[in-house]
Amino acid sequence: MNQTEMPARPALVCLPTYNEKDNVGPIVEAILAEAREADVLVIDDNSPDGTGALADAIAAREPRVHVLHRAGKEGLGKAYLAGFDWALHHGYELVLEMDADFSHDPKRLPAMLEAAREADLVLGSRNVPGGGTVNWSAVRKFISRGGSWYARTILGIPVRDLTGGFKCFHRKVLEAIDLSTVECSGYAFQIELTYRAIRKGFRVKEIPIVFVDRRVGQSKMSKRIVLEALRKVWSIRASDFR
Q1: Of 51 and 148, which is predicted with more confidence?
Q2: Domains of the chain, first to last
Q3: How far, rounded to the nearest angstrom, does the alpha carbon of residue 59 sit from its chain's CA centroid?
Q4: pTM
C-alpha cells in the first residue's frame, strides 16, 4: 500500500534518544497514558548505553510504540527529520516532537492536541503567560529569553518562544516545508521550522508549558549550541521560504 492509500492515523510523538536508558521506559509509558490517541516513535542514534535495545523491547510488547534506529549521532535536527519522514510515510495526521528526559511534561500533550484543532502548528511556549522554567539559573533564563527575542526581532515574527522543542505539526505543514531542504540542526532547527511555517502562511499558536530541567543524565545543551543557533538566524532570514 502506498502513502496516498494509507488511512490517516491520528498522531505520532517523535522522541529522539541518545543514552537515555533510564528515561526511555518511563517517558514512553507517560506519553501512552496521557495521549491515548497517539503512538510513539523512538528515534535512537545508536546509543552506546543500550537505549535502542530497551526501546525495541518496549515496542515488542506495545503496538503503539515504534523504533527507528540510526547509524550514529548526527544532531537533534537530523533525528527529528528522520522521524518526521517516517511519520509522513506511515500516514500520521499530527506529528509531535518532544524531549525524552521529562523536560517536556507529557501531561501537556492533550492540550497540544486540542490546540491543533485550531492551529496548523502548536508550540509549547515557556515565554507566554502560564509558561516558565524550573531549575534554571538566572544566566540560562537570560540566554533563553534573550535568544528568542533576538531571533524574533531579526526574523520579524511574533512568536515568543522560537527555540522550544515541544511542538505539534499538521502533516500539511511538514509537506509544505519540504523536509529535504531544511538546512539547520540543533536549536536553529527549531527556529527554521517555525519561521518557514509562518512564511508558508500556516496558523501558529503558542500554549504555555513549564520546562523542567532533566531528571536523569546530563543536559545536551551548551553555549556553543546556543551561539550557533543565533548565528544561523541570519542565514534563515536570508533564505526565501515563501
Answers
A1: 51
A2: 8-238 (3.90.550.10)
A3: 21
A4: 0.89
